[in-house]
């Protein structure tokens, strides 16, 4: 209640809204006051949540997650981490809002499952206050996104402290960049174990095992009872290492479908498998998966596939780079060109320094043609950098309506809004 009041009246981050015919919780309680209580029977297939997708690459949709989906995902998480955690003794840092599916499952339901305490951080952007809480409580587990870990390792107070009880660091929501992971390991002695999931999968699909002894650059292996396949553009299964395709998932954590969106539900399934919209490849023969990028974020330069995360990973290795985002912008000569937005740690960093580093690590067509230095990058409320917003702003600068370049998938989504 206090957090809600703080967000609405002090931070003023809750917009004014009006919901016709809505009944408040208090009104509902008063209306049912005189009725006898009948304990409901809840089956595994009963709907538990309408968890809406983030909408960072398209229209938000309500994923129908059942009680069985969520229970399965909690047990899958326990199956991966049980030998590192002790029931009833853990303190897990919750810096991601609990309404986000990552925190909902891992920082809420999983905490209940193992009897852990959860340290709620109301505003993870306030790094100074966040570090103070870490010092006061000495947690055993930290979960977060790449931008959070990056902000911490670039904070002097955090770098001067030692979290003595920390035994597990889990990264999700977006790819953990190599430069960030290396600095985190140097300071804490722990690797950030990257996990992968999506709203439609409750969300956990794959995680790095806790006993890895180096940065893998992968999302690990599928969690128990989960089958994943990678398909090429002709829907053929890819088994070779380092060949990218779309990642598909089958398992007890996969949603029932999208609420009121039958066409969208049909399109997102390939038989029993959910199409994630993420490009991935097999990293090795041991079942490790490397996430390449979002399918919708792919940049096409003269017919060659360029994945933003690859460029971002290289640039983040530079000691004077704090944050970076790469997008594709229209080009008359090559279809698209790469543009990067950089937040600098040191103003001495120049465009030529960035390009020199990129030329050293990337093939020529992947080297950014345009570089823009910024004071900050747009992020979602959980800290994911919004490439879509950057791309749309660039299109408007060029006099192009972003809607005119909507992909076929986005066009289908707009048509699908009429589904009931």
What do you see in this structure?
This protein has helices at residues 2-10, 25-31, 67-81, 101-114, 127-137, 146-153, 156-159, 178-188, 262-268, 308-316, 351-361, 387-397, 408-416, and strands spanning 47-52, 62-66, 91-94, 117-120, 141-144, 168-171, 192-197, 204-207, 221-222, 227-231, 245-250, 269-270, 273-282, 289-294, 299-301, 304-306, 321-331, 335-344, 370-374. The longest helix is centred in the first third of the chain and has 15 residues, at 67-81. The strands form 5 sheets. Strands 4-3-5-6-7-8-9 form a 7-stranded mixed β-sheet. Strands 10, 11, 12, 13 and 14 form a 5-stranded antiparallel β-sheet that branches. With 420 residues, the chain is an alpha/beta fold. The model is unreliable at 407-420 (pLDDT under 50). β13 (273-282) and β14 (289-294) form a beta hairpin. It is globular.
Beta-strand content bin: 15-25%
- Helix percent reads 25-40%
CATH topology of the largest domain: Rossmann fold
CATH architecture of the largest domain: 3-Layer(aba) Sandwich
The coarse overall form would be: globular
Largest sheet: 7 strands, mixed
Number of strands: 19
The average pLDDT score comes to 90
Which strand order spans the largest sheet, edge to edge or round the barrel? 4-3-5-6-7-8-9
Classified by CATH, the class of the largest domain is Alpha Beta
Q: What's the CATH H-level superfamily name of the largest domain?
A: ANL, N-terminal domain
| Alpha plus pi helix count | 13
User: SS-based structural class?
Assistant: alpha/beta
Low-confidence segments, ≥5 residues, pLDDT <50?
Answer: 407-420
Radius of gyration: 22 Å
N-to-C terminal Cα separation, in Å? 34 Å
Number of domains: 2
